[in-house]
Amino acid sequence: MPVTLPQLHDKFERGEPLVMVTAYDFPGARAAQAAGVDMVLVGDSGAEMVLGYPSTVAVSTEEMLMLTAAVRRGLQEPLLIADLPFGSYEASDDQAVMTAARFVREAGAQAVKLERGNATSVARAVAIVQAGIPVMGHVGLTPQSATALGGNRAQGRSAEAATRICREALALQDAGCFAIVLEAIPAAVTEELVSLLRVPTIGIGAGPAAAGQVLVFHDLLGLRDGTGARFVRRYANLGAEAVAALSNYAEDVRARRYPAAEHCYTIEPGELAEFRAALGNP
Ligand code: KIV
Questions:
Q1: Could you report the per-residue pLDDT of 87-98, keeping only the tens digit for each?
Q2: HSE, side-chain direction, 13 A CA sphere, residue 217
Q3: Is there an atom of ligand 1 within 6 Å of 214 CB?
Q4: How many helices (H) and strands (E) does the chain have?
Q5: How far is the CA of 204 from the centre of ligand 1 (A)?
Q6: What 3-state class would DSSP assign to 15?
Q7: HSE on the CB side for 221, CA within 13 Å?
Q8: Rounded to 5 degrees, what are φ and ψ at 81?
Q9: What is the C-alpha separation between 211 and 133, in angstroms, rounded?
Q10: Three-class SS state of 220
Q11: For 260-278, what is each residue's pLDDT tens digit?
Q12: Domains of the chain
């Protein structure tokens, strides 16, 4: 049965940790589905992870719709949330509602996520929620505004910055967000936040007090170059395995070890003789 928002909230109330992971395609969705996660986010991190852009701001709504629809086809139970890309919701409430509705209608998302808790994002969250589409908020490090934040670095490390993040999270909760992502903030700040919020928090680099955790698919599976941010735990090294497998394949082809007999189709000897005769080559 598909995961519903009330079910997620019940889990949260019971103190059960919520599990979210990003996915950007059909096989990724199938893996998340088989692993039994609660929520799958088609993050705009897909811009970097699967489309090769230098940052998340480059990805278009059309590209995010295509990624989300592919994930939809591989997912049955987990709640499917789509990130609203940079530039697709900031201009007006109408723009935000229209973009969010496209993710629901055209790509099968059940909820959308938007970044920041400033007045603009809060207003857009209100508009989208009023249009009947569940919204997840996102505060702390918000990569769409990384330039303004001084790069992809931890946020909320001064009393003033932590207070601002707290105000933003409360405003997003009041706007009707069903959950709020906390990215790259001190664990102690998260502890204070969770005691103030009634909605679940989903942490990424926000310590253990968050109600749930999210990791980027390519980070946790080791499909990305480098070690990643300090909060990443790698559960596999699939990138290295892929290179080893492709190298073995290349060696086998060059040494004529692949394909072997078991990879070949056969033809009846009589049919083969007739074929050769037809070619004048008995
Ligand atoms: O785009 C993304 O992957 C995200 C997560 C890090 C929460 O926003």
A1: 999 999 999 999
A2: 28
A3: yes
A4: 12, 8
A5: 8
A6: coil
A7: 15
A8: -115, 135
A9: 22
A10: helix
A11: 999 999 999 999 999 999 9
A12: 5-236 (3.20.20.60), 242-278 (no CATH)
